[in-house]
């Protein structure tokens, strides 16, 4: 028998058709799985992995202390990160294959879908940490080229997410300046992290194959310019939104840290790309006149990285001031969105360490150590708090906002918006 089709208004997205039978089925799926977030590469896991990867790299590059011990902790975090990555990725694939209706709801959601960009970013941090392990323990050229192959896979995924998610935002979702948040940056910054990874791999590959290193560096430069170009188109809009509408609501205040990410990661990419171009010029691996002298490349990379480092100071100070004022007036409830502070601050600390190495500056070295310690303490406190809340009520911590309309068909758009803010926390809304 033919059954009726009804329209459902869904959290500021364009109206789409939902079959009542499918809606009931998805609702049952939701209840069966305790409303646990079925999209692994949403904030609850993706930012944890990216942040953990940044902590692993920071341990490897920490300027003080016993290097073997720090490297050992870095490798331990790498193993933990790989295990979590594989586990949650497998769970996501199983859930989406078993319940494909959820996938359609997820990519139509104007917030949750943007976190698909965290997949290539989190995967790139695994490659970075593995590259550090390769250089420390001399794991061999086969291992290096395995990482190189994984980087090409990550690059393709990053470009697909970069273009497809922006197209979906334009054609499948409704957005407005008033609702603009820093989460809009996620698809834009997706290529920047693989760009840094590509530059680091190119440096390691130069002694083995200069031609492979040149290709890798060329692609990494493209990724960097794609990511930063779109980022610097979105940031003025975000600044306009802050000036005209004020600070985000208290439940979304941690999102203020997101712009620090492209500043730190983009600056690090510029510095490393400049260093690798300079090394290629010194080795005379190419007859191209652009690679005749190494100094211009070093200067260009350092100046670009230092510009982004100073630009990041503004966002850090603004974020800290806004968070202090918000916590003083109305402290937000803990949510997984708090993990959004770890990765941006981690990559900013890495950029500070890079500048310390280049300038041979005690100031930057001490500052990088202080920032690294802040990131370590932040990661540890968030890990302990998250484990505590998971033991108390994991369902409340890892809600899937894209299923809000199915779990409560009577919910209004305002209620769904509020539920999304509470479940995803500060950064996702």
What does this structure look like?
The protein has about 425 residues and is mostly helical. It has one domain (about 40-425): Glycosyltransferase (Alpha/alpha barrel). The protein is about 70% helix and about 0% strand. It has helices at about 20-30, 45-60, 65-100, 100-110, 120-135, 140-170, 185-190, 190-205, 210-245, 260-285, 295-330, 340-360, 360-395, 405, 415-425, and strands spanning about 5-10, 15-20. Strands 1-2 form a two-stranded antiparallel sheet. Strand 1 (about 5-10) and strand 2 form a beta hairpin. Helix 3 (about 65-100) packs antiparallel against helix 5 and helix 12 (about 340-360) runs antiparallel to helix 13 (about 360-395). Mean pLDDT is about 75; it is low at about 1-45 and about 405-429.
Features:
mainly alpha, Glycosyltransferase, 15 helices, disordered C terminus
Helical/strand content category: mainly alpha
What oligomeric state is this?
single chain
The beta-strand count equals 2
Helix percentage range: over 70%
Radius of gyration: 22 Å
Secondary-structure element pattern, one letter each: EEHHHHHHHHHHHHHHH
Strand order across the largest sheet: 1-2
What name does CATH use for the topology? Glycosyltransferase
Q: Can you tell me the CATH architecture?
A: Alpha/alpha barrel
What is the CATH superfamily classification? Voltage-dependent anion channel
CATH structural class:
Mainly Alpha
Q: Could you say which overall geometry the principal axes of the C-alpha atoms support? A: globular
Give the rounded overall mean pLDDT.
77
Number of DSSP helical runs: 15
Distance between the termini: 41 Å
Number of separate structural domains: 1
How would you characterize the largest beta sheet? 2 strands, antiparallel
